[in-house]
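Run log // design_07
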């Protein structure tokens, strides 16, 4: 095998590894919420066939505001529930709906649609 052939082969293998990593590689640890001037940790969540992002990372001891925006008409996602906080919110299509949560101890707090089909979670560190 000449040096050129070897280089091409290596590049091919690297490209394949890159593609495999892109599709099957480890997912990130979620999206970290930003801190607003009012002291809330805030994140936007798009509701469309699921929650994007579906993992939101916040710090313990600070209140959280999650802003949901539903961009679909599927009835499935018209409500979002936070069982751990005893909270629920209706999500009219195309409107931003803020859900405020109290400062929480470190842990994972799930949220889901009214039927329990769509899932996301708030990770408090
Ligand atoms: Cu549902």
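design_07 sequence
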């Amino acid at each position: 095998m000449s040096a050129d052939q070897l280089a091409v082969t290596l590049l091919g293998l690297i490209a394949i590894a890159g593609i495999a990593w892109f599709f099957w590689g480890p997912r990130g640890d979620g999206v970290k919420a930003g801190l607003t001037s009012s002291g809330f940790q805030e994140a936007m969540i798009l509701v469309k066939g699921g929650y994007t992002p579906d993992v939101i990372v916040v710090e313990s001891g600070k209140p959280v505001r999650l802003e949901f925006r539903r961009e679909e008409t599927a009835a499935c996602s018209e409500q979002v529930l936070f069982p751990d906080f005893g909270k629920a919110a209706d999500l009219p299509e195309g409107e931003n709906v803020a859900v405020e949560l109290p400062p929480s101890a470190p842990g994972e707090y799930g949220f889901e649609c009214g039927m329990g089909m769509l899932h996301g979670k708030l990770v408090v560190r």
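The mean pLDDT is 89.
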